[in-house]
Amino acid sequence: MTDIKTALITGASRGIGNAIARELNDNGYEVLGTATSESGVKLIQDQGMGGYVLDLNSSDSLVNFWEQIETENKNISVLINNAGITRDNIVLRMSDDEWSDIMNVHLNGTFQLCKRALKMMLKSKWGRIINISSASASIGNRGQSNYAAAKAGVEAFTKSLAKEVGKRDITINAVAPGFITTDMTEQNKGVNAEYLMKEIPLGRFGEAEEVANLVNFLCS
């Protein structure tokens, strides 16, 4: 890379987000990673990257985080909206909080960060945004109507935003992984592992590093 670009990755302390952060760091980006806890921030920092606390379920946390980014004069060229949570339940038992928590983190958080980062990208006349979606957006999953709906919203948002800013040399893409082996998916695999494996032509679950390689390509 002829100039060092700054990449912001949410949910960068573990799983797919950490793999993406390490991949971009190895490829010469200045990487800023977020986590919801101080211990997660320390893990990111221990890997030689910038670490920040950000809870996308809290508007105050988002405001404080972005003020810190601006105070440090960071110019975000690449944004990876990866942070994710699950609040699984069937619809008849799902609480309002279980629904809204998912929407806040996955969909509203993506909107808020895109809106802020785009202002920097428009000034620079260059930018890359990659929103991490999920195969659940298109196929659905029992007990995950909130998660599937949020991810479907992310994909629709991505397509619309791409049409708004594409002529400005800013690309907007979504990556929708299938079942990837991470801490979060391990908690949800359970008795469905055998069924899931039968649905995968390669006969194995994906690895976070494979997603990271694709994201690195989309950042170019």
Description:
Helices cover 51% and strands 16% of the residues. The protein has 220 residues and is an alpha/beta fold. The chain has a single domain (6-218), classed as Rossmann fold (3-Layer(aba) Sandwich). It has a six-stranded parallel beta sheet, sandwiched between helices. The protein has a two-stranded parallel sheet with strand order 7-8. Helix 1 packs across helix 9. The termini are close together. The model has no long low-confidence stretch (mean pLDDT 93).
First CA to last CA: what distance? 9 Å
If you average the pLDDT, what whole number results?
93
Portion in strands: 15-25%
- Indicate the CATH topology: Rossmann fold
Category by helix and strand content: alpha/beta
Strand order of the largest sheet: 3-2-1-4-5-6
Low-pLDDT stretches are: none
CATH class: Alpha Beta
Looking at this structure, what is the CATH superfamily?
NAD(P)-binding Rossmann-like Domain
State Rg.
Answer: 17 Å
Q: Give the number of DSSP strands.
A: 8
- Tell me what the CATH architecture is: 3-Layer(aba) Sandwich
Task: Give the overall shape.
Answer: globular
